[in-house]
User: Fold these one by one.
Assistant:
Number 1:
Amino acid sequence: MDYNKIQALLDKYWEAQTSIEEEKILKNYFNQSDIDTRLKEFQPLFQHFELEKEVSVSDGFEDRLWSQISEKPDTKVIQLKSWYYRIASAAAILLICCTAYFLQQYEPMQPSKKGATVIVLDDAENAEEAYAKVKAALMIVSAKMNKGNQATKQSIGKLNVLQKIK
């Protein structure tokens, strides 16, 4: 048979578009001894289909299978429900105890004294004094931000130098 015709049938076969007659043509072609060398790799597949047709089960197989299915095996039933509740209860108690312990040990985080500036605004007696304290606090914040901004600019400058070196 022509290689192109068989190749076209194989393409249809892989896309599940072949009819039963076309599949029979493929099976007959691949079950013969004279096959195009470019199609030899597909021969075992179609030969497998023919070999599997010859396989059959022994007499009484179905009866033996049903008898094995219907037999009740000798097994001991273990009640997991009671074990599950015991383990779940123990885990819940442990969780509650651990939570209570950690809540007792918990101390709210205190601001570190190192480098911290604390300004008390509550003791201002008039609006002008409060304004002056707020202005002083904002100046401190501004100074710290400018210091961080300068450090960032220096780091970026170093990175730019490194990129130019590459």
Number 2:
Amino acid sequence: MRDRTLRVNSAGMAALVAAALLLMLAAGSTAGQAAPAVPVVLTVVGPSQPVPAGQDFLVTIRVSQATDLGAFEFGVDFAQGVLSTHPDWMALTPFLGSTGRSTGELRITNPPNLMDPVFGAYSYGSGSGPAGNGELATIQFHAAAPGTSEIELTQPQVTDTNANVQQVTIVAGSVTVAPSSSMRQLFLPMLLRR
């Protein structure tokens, strides 16, 4: 009887050891993996009301869910018959340097193989980059002609302070350009002779 008890206990012990090993292997296979990266969101925020033709206006590029932000760059795509801009009209806001890191800017008017102007910025120095939400940049546009234009960021790149590329999600914006208000219609009375 004692021999049978040892066999049952041995079989039970072997099953417990096997189950424990499986649990350890399963835990070990996920312990070394990083949590899924939450993408950085870049949003184009344009004017909420139509802009009269002939006027300049600002568009803001907002970042959400940033973590240790170190650098970014993007192209800008828009309807060139409705709007115009120039890389010199793109400006960095204080968010990238808000943790005390120094910043620099990059502007390319006609990048190779692209029609869109490119703007970017980088930071350097000690310490972490900013995290969370904020305004990254502003872009001044000129409302050239009546119509509607989507404003989309192309080929975006976002990195942390160690130059690790982060996932990016883009939310495009749009603007409506209305006919210029400077062209007033003048109605004159009409006199008829009999």
Number 3:
Amino acid sequence: MDEGFAMTMKTIKAEDLYRRIKLGHNVVLLDVRSQSEYDEGHIAGAKLYPLESFRATDIISQVCAPYPMPPTIYISCAFGSEAGKACQLLADAGYEYIMKLEGGMYAWITAGLPLKKEKDNPPVLESLPIHQQMQIAVGSVVAIGALLGTFVNTGFLAFPLLAGAGLMYEGFCGTEYLKETFLKLSRDK
């Protein structure tokens, strides 16, 4: 294994990872989110290694110890971007067998796959999938902005315009800024 090689990001779809787990494949799964996000719901068997304290060489020695051959390490996070950073850290440490969960836990939840939860009775809004929360939030901004722009002041029409432009930007560029911002705002309450 060469240290610091540029890696080609390998990804796996949520359904394919779930199938591998169900078939009994040796799945080494790391979750790089925060403790609170992990407690709210994670893939059964995932080990928590938050990105802010991620030490690739230590993790490699810990998770590979039980295996005679280096296993593939699957990395999950909220939406996929933090998992990419963790994959790169493992690659920089010389590890080659790495796959990122495409779309992160958002994709896992959206696919309706099972979660293991550490806390009981989440508030109603948190029990909705994140895509539904996003639809409610953006729909509210558009509807309220349109009503205020029609009946109060046309300046309020900027809100639906900005919401629409933001969604178009995300769609064309494939970014997750709006989702990540909304997720952070909902967790800070």
Number 4:
Amino acid sequence: MPQTTSCKEGTYVLLTPDITEAIRWILVPGGICQYGDEGRPIRIRPLYWSATPLTCQAGKPLTDVNHEEAATIAARLGGRLPTSAEWEWMAAGPQRRRYPWGDQPWQPHLANLRDSGLGHPGLVGSHPDGATPLGLLDVAGTVWEWTASTLMGGGAIIRGGSFASPPLYAQCTFLNAAPLELRSRGIGLRVVREA
């Protein structure tokens, strides 16, 4: 039976072939990620990434899914959740950009963050000026993204900041965590596939 999950309170989306075929995949070459503020080297394999966080109704991000549901959705789409190091490599690239778009300080046209005044996730893809050089959209802001990296104590690392986050949280090396069972309108997911 297909998985159903909420896009916003009171509405549900069914994972069907037309949704899965609508995902645009972008190849992010592999390399050595200088992970975290300390720049710990971690080898990252080439991966295909969903160009945006997953969406449902009218281009809104798929949210209100806990970590297990996010991992199940990713698997049903033929992929998985990225690790935190893979996410950072995708966001910062080999240049170790401060933000996904580069080193330019945040401005409202670059990402949906707290000070942009929107106050909700908004539509995915609404900030094309904030794309990575490879064209991945909404890496910063809109919704946090679950990763496969879990923590002692039952949480998982989330990356990218959300519509309620200050610009600091949108920096490529910024880590946050959430309880595995949390469902929030501020947390969504992006999927990776092996290249």
